[in-house]
Amino acid sequence: MNGKNNSKPLGPILVLVFLCILFAVVPLLIKDQYILQVTIMALLFAYWAVSWNITCGFAGLFSLGHAAFIGLGAYVSTILFLEYAVTPWIGMLIGGLVSVVAAIIIGYPCFKLRGVYFAISTLAFVSVLQMLITGTRHLGPIDLGAGEGLLIPVAGHSWAKFQFVDKSYYYWIILAMLVGGTALAFSLKMSKIGYYLMAIKFDQEAADSLGVNVVKYKLLSWCISAFLTAMGGSFYAQLLLYVAPDRLLSIPLSIELVIIALVGGIGSVAGPIIGAFLLIPLGEILRTELGGQFAQVEAMIYGSILILIILFLPGGIKRELEERITDTVRWVVSAYKSSYGREKS
Amino acid sequence: MGSDGFMLELDSLSKEFGGLLAVSRVRLTLNKGEIFSLIGPNGAGKTTLFNMIAGVFPPDSGKILFNGRRIDALKPNQVCKLGIARTFQIVRPFAEATVLENVMVGAFLRTSSVNEARRLSRETIDFLGLGSKMHEHAHGLPIGDRKRLEVARGLATKPELLLLDEPMGGLTPTEREELIDIIRKINEQGVTIFLIEHVMEAVMKLSKKVAVLNYGRLIFDGTPDEAVKDQDVIAAYLGEEYSVA
Questions:
Q1: Looking at the predicted complex, does its ipTM rise above 0.90?
Q2: What's the pTM value of the predicted model, to 2 decimals?
Q3: pLDDT (tens digit, 0 to 9) for every residue of chain B, 245 residues total?
Q4: Residues B201/B176, Cβ–Cβ less than 8 Å
Q5: What CATH code would you report for B1-83+159-245?
Q6: Looking at CA atoms only, how far is residue B182 from chain A in angstroms?
Q7: With an 8 Å Cβ cutoff, are A210 and B75 in contact?
Q8: How far apart are alpha carbons B215 and B15 in whole angstroms?
Q9: Are residues A209 and B86, on separate chains, in Cβ contact within 8 Å?
Q10: A211·B97 Cβ contact <8 A
């Protein structure tokens, strides 16, 4: 966490502003829709991993159930649009709220469970939701689409309908969501809430004895995480114009977020973003270059790379990068100082 | 407010674990501003008593009153908010956080401002003599420093009553002297102290009142000087070398 250098956070903020501007102009330079699509997916997964990290990395609630929130966000905004012509922008917020309600229902009784037991119960949550949707075509007057899913009719370029022909618009929207989510995560981490979540993560009983209302703060981080994740789900539905339970409400999607955050570096704000920008393009390159040639060879290579990262960089790539960069900066500074000193004497 | 003005009142407290009576009808009172010591052999129920006061589990029967208010149905965080902080016998620092961050968690009980929490924590850490280790991770500290960190964290919650569970355990004689000094200073600032301790030297130096627990029962409640002369206390806990003294 913080502690040192807290009096002058201007440097990192300038770097972040620069990065935001750099990312914002990417669609103006790259017109290749495929590359843009991959970058959008990297941004979306970075956003999800950042959201996931608020509950798991900060509070230690290891969730394997975040696909449930993605699915809820996607389904709620899509159904509201198809059945009641509600704009997906509003649908996105309602999807977030529905997810929060679901998060409270599943989270509250499960908070008593620790570690892997909590993880398993969240995993069950995804599976149950997936089976429910797959097996249900109609819920009262509402068409749920069962296993085939729901299609959103193509409407060309329309802000009101959250649809764009040019992928750049999706890019800017998800970039804005990622910046917003990251800013929220960062301010949470630096606040009283962040310290309390850290305390809960390391030792619940000790936190409790210091006046931390453990259930309240777990629930808070869990709900914020669910809300953000669901908004990403609505975005995903608008990007694909299609929702289906086999992908959106799946355990592999849940696990993908976890892997991205783990590889990038759990607990920090930037880690999940770095993880997403490494793994999403990697998966995509392997799929397009090697996919379909040999039996699943791309998946084998992807898996092997994951194992190597986890073996050799157990703290995540972010920590490794930081250490390397800090070392380099120190080396440069000391080299500069010694040469400067020599000139003077 | 309590009619008789005690800060802490334990009224006939009992706790059973699987048929074994860990604490049996214990009555104790603490006055505001004093240092009260509780001694007794291992397994006598001392920590169980602390856990009940701190809200870890409720007593099976009996009442706990803090400033005249019943607290025996409250959770640990609620008890802490009322002004009772505790340390653990086996220290439980937030291992991967720094000393400062550890103490700040405590300080946030009385403020939501990060700067204010940081300022209060720095003061507390300096007071405990850990100032030079402010940014070190808790897991790298030697046991003596971890014991102090435990006290600092509790103190940062600005308690009226501080429950110390064997703070001297594992310390060198020098470290003990320093901690005895610190505890006295904390008390001088107006914090009432309830001390569980095996180190008789610390008990004798710090407190004017001592209680002895044996097999969950209170067998003595008086001054330390009387305690070391009491035949029951000597037989149950202190051993023969104290009977001469």
A1: yes
A2: 0.89
A3: 444 679 999 999 999 998 889 999 999 999 999 999 999 988 899 999 999 999 999 999 999 999 999 999 999 999 999 999 999 999 999 999 999 999 999 999 999 999 999 999 999 999 999 999 999 999 999 999 999 999 999 999 999 999 999 999 889 999 999 999 999 999 999 999 999 998 888 999 999 999 999 999 999 999 998 998 888 888 888 776 565 44
A4: yes
A5: 3.40.50.300
A6: 20
A7: no
A8: 12
A9: yes
A10: no
